[in-house]
Amino acid sequence: MKRDIRYLFNDEDDNLKQLPDNHRAEFMTQLKKQSKPKRKPFVWLSVAAILLIALTVGFNVFNTDIDTNKPEAIIAQVESIEAEYLANIETEWQNFIALTEDEKLVKRFRKKLDELDSDYQEISVQFKNDSNNILVIEALVDNLQTRLQILKDIQKHIKILNQNNEQHENTI
Amino acid sequence: MKTLFKLLALMLITLLQLNAQQHNIFNKSFDANSITTLDLNLDGVYVKIEESLDNKIHFNYTIEFDNYSKKAIEEQLEGINTIAKIVDSKLLFETFSETPLSDVVYSIESLHGITFEGDYMTFKETSEIRWRKPKKYFYGMNDDTKVETLKEYLKDLRGLDGEGRAQRIDSKNVKTLKTNFIIKIPADINLRIRSFDSHMTFKLDLTGLVNVNARNTNLQFMSLTNPLNNFDIANGKFRSNDLKGGAYKFNHVSDLKIASVDHLNIDSEFTTIIIGEVGREVKIVDFNGKYWLNNFSEGFKYFQMDTEYSEINLFYPEKSSYYIETYGTDTLHIYDKTNFEIEPNRKNELSKMFVIGKASNINKIQLNSVHGIIRFGKDFIEINE
Q1: pLDDT tens digits, residue range B242-295?
Q2: Is B100 within 8 Å of A126 when comparing Cβ atoms?
Q3: N or C: at which end does chain A have fewer Cβ atoms within 10 angstroms?
Q4: ipTM of this model?
Q5: Where are the domains of chain A?
Q6: What are the residue boundaries of the structural domains of chain B, listed by start?
């Protein structure tokens, strides 16, 4: 996939602050200062709990609303990207077959593109079942980008060789 | 008052758990004394493999959900199937997830859809200088775990509002699924792995026989040293420290970086492979790949590549004297900032194209190339296209 979200939180571990050597003594001093009994020790806890209930319920209601969203919009978005890519891939394919006379090479690329298309169909099924999953969306885009990239790369390769052959012929 | 406190504390804990729930998928241990082979069949799984120090095989698989509704969690869990059974001296473990899992999977919730911004259709730079990289650089890189933050990850994604306008996605609208799956194994156990849409990170050096068929799988290894190892990898990614022995087949694998190779064969196509150091008896067959060979070991003796439509970027061996010979046709050589092309003849016959050093040298590099590009460099290689 184009982007890999693995190890996302590893940096956070690295940034954990070290406790100072005398943290235990400092903590005890702070504790003594704050250890006076208060009149209603659980009032703040009640307020916090109510607030938390309100926030959580609100959040869950919000999420429930969101869960009913229409995946068609996302699917349409991806289909639009797919159409743009496929048009570019077809253009690059035509450019490629016009550039080379090596039938074995064309055949090998056709096979590779067919394999990638077959993979794409499998990922599309996953996407229809789980349209909001970023991994799946990226797999789709990555597949299309790969097809375009290999076609661009091989044309560049052939052009470099042809260019140098022409220069050599002109020199002779 | 105590009862009130307990009730409130219980409510708090329950409410917090509503938005972050951890579920056990599979937790079991097996005595490895009677098991010679671990057969892993993985589909849509993210797993780390660590060394077991008590001669047991341990499975510890949990998933944590954040911002998921109860129904969505149930659906996810129903889509995960796991089986483990012992057949003769083989432990067979299979796990399948309908949704491909990573260590963290984000699902964006947006009322009217999402859109991409930025560079999803841009391509690589065409001009660059690459410096020779030492073997130890690859050890560090292959152990590297630094990737994008959620903020970076969402950079190119936008949510659409009711009027189709793109808005930044609030991280609160992202559902998070975290996988924590660790298998602990003895280092000398034989492994048979079939994986699809998965991610495997090995945190131990493997000395047993490893046989892998992987598709769309990201693989990360320490060292692999069994001479009979056999890998067939299609798509996905591959990183490893030292590979000694075996046969490796790579078909369109990306991010392929290996610290060192020794006594092995590679068969590759549509793949860019970066190798820190080439050792003894290494043979590579490639179609339309890009190779970066940063160095050769002391007394590597013989190295051979057979390539078609490939790019070979070779840094001269630093630790040994050498002889380099290229053989083939229609290949551009870039040597000391000079380009020279061996043109195809009418019969497409192959011939000796280029040599560096004396043929009597005991360290020989044989590059056989058809329709290829070969670049040589001492400290750096410049790509001008």
Answers
A1: 999 999 999 999 989 999 999 999 999 999 999 999 999 999 999 999 999 999
A2: yes
A3: C
A4: 0.78
A5: 40-69, 71-171
A6: 18-108+176-222, 118-149+254-385
